[in-house]
Amino acid sequence: MNVVLWIIQILLAVVFAGAGFAKLTQPKDKLREMMRWVDPVPPTQVKALGAVELLAALGLVLPPLTGIATVLTPLAATGLVIVMIGGILVHLRDRKKQDTSEQRRTELQGAITCAVLLVLAAVVAWGRFGPYSF
After folding, report:
1. Residues of the chain with pLDDT > 90: what percent?
2. Using CA atoms, how far apart are residues 114 and 130, in angstroms rounded to an integer?
3. In angstroms, rounded to a whole number, what is the distance separating the alpha carbons of residues 72 and 58?
């Protein structure tokens, strides 16, 4: 199970490092092409979310690799669970009547992606707080 947790941690770290880096470095107009949810969100909030995701990605792998403050790994995973709950809510919020069914379908896909990432982060949090802690 330890190996499975490491694989999930690395996978989550890659996903959130990439997403966080994109949110930190790309202008909002460029992000809008890939992430429709950024449209009503202030740019500072998008950048803050990117920073949180990048820090969580580092928290998933660096503490156990260095042996320093290993409790940060399950805390980072727990933080990602919270972020993904927010992501699900954002993707499922009521859309204006002018939204097309394609946009609704895209938002549903985003919510499903968030739900999968939430489950993976919850598994890491459970495992690293519990039976497979460092």
Report:
1. 72
2. 24
3. 10
